[in-house]
Amino acid sequence: MSTQNITRILIVGGGTVGVGTAARLQSQLNGRHARITLVNPLPHMAYRPLLPEVAAGLIDPNDLVVPLRKVLRKCEVVVGTVTRLEHATRRAWVGTPDGEVTELDYDIVVMTAGSSVREQPVTGGAGQRRSCKTLTEATYLRDHVLSRIAEAAATTDAGERRRLLTFVLVGGGYEGMECLTELDDLVRFAVGRHPGIVPGEVTWAVVEESERILRDAGSKHAVRTLERLAGRGVRVYLNTTAEATGDGHLTLSDGTEVAAGTVIWNAPSAANPMLLDTDLPLDARGRLRCTSTLQVAGESGAFGAGDIAVVPDLTRVDDDPSAVCRATALHAHAQAKVLADNVESAIAGTALRQYHQPNADAGANPGLYRSFAEVRGGGVEGGKARLLHWAYHVARIPGLSRKTRIFSGRLPGQRFRRHLVERSIGGGSATVHEMPAPSGDAGRAKAS
């Protein structure tokens, strides 16, 4: 501990888990013998589970922006990226936006930096691919989709029209399904503004490298979603990867060529590369190894949770000893609470509790008014399922005023046509990474 008997807590990452942990700690500790520092590349967080609804024009982007300094008034917020961390000496180096490097000392470190986008070896420029991982990307994607519809309505070339109205999603995980179905609803609304286009001209396809979509959810859930997508005319390519993009075409690993005006990249997440510049233990895939108490395996004074960490799923270990928690919002929120409680217990010298969250599969969302979810073993469909899904996430966005704005603005969008405004997007892809890759090639991680 520090010489002044004040525990210095360093939280790396200001996403859902990091902010939730910091907020709970500042309330629990209330400045008692602890100083909390949170490091994040941006001075705000955007609530990622609702980004597809931003892309669909149902939520104002500003309503998802959570200023960290306003929410975490009793914490020190440092805007920057951890480029190196030596837990053996309790030191971290933070690169700031102005190019300076600041050294921070700590007693307890909490790793919640999330995952990174996993790039597949695809030929063709990244500018050919869109994404919906950040607020900037979600806003850009919305304008891009609307511009494709406007261009299709204006062209007399049948082949070009067909290409512009073809949308391909690479990655059939839960986030990908949310993105596809919300954007499909947006396209259906937008097509109604162009009498020359009929909904049947719009084509959607999903490219998934595994044997089924929604592989992080239950098999029943995945089959149900696949049936709904087939009912909407969505083509699904399983056990297939994207090999090349360019000139308005996407080539798949099975040799199929798709003329697509939009390719949305939602490949599965990869380990955060910043872990390579730490001395913390990693698994074979480069993720942080943690115990069921959310402590970093074999390390005192180090904790981890969220997508960056591999945490045993105690609800499934009887059937599968290697089972780990899936990357869902449910686990993120639940882990933040246990994480904060265990950090407080570590300071007080009391016993830590294990993370045990009964795993309810996240509700699938195959389109407006057509949602379904499995809740505690029971099925809920239609508007009720969609309302449950939406209300769950809105309830967890920090700030009463923010919840109220989203709630008051979101409900009319269920029953009335959305306000569609086509804005100039300037032709460039807006790509913002929430946690940039660290500079240097230290690579001091202990992999096992």
Automatic annotation (TrEMBL):
Q: Which GO terms describe its molecular function?
A: NADH dehydrogenase activity
Q: Which domain of life is it from?
A: Bacteria
Transmembrane segments annotated in the record for this chain: none
Q: Which InterPro entries match?
A: FAD/NAD-bd_sf (IPR036188), FAD/NAD-binding_dom (IPR023753), NDH-2 (IPR045024)
Q: Which Pfam families match?
A: Pyr_redox_2
Q: Where is this region: Disordered?
A: 427-448
Q: Which family does it belong to?
A: Belongs to the NADH dehydrogenase family.
What protein is this chain from? FAD-dependent oxidoreductase
Query: What is the scientific name of the source organism?
Result: Speluncibacter jeojiensis
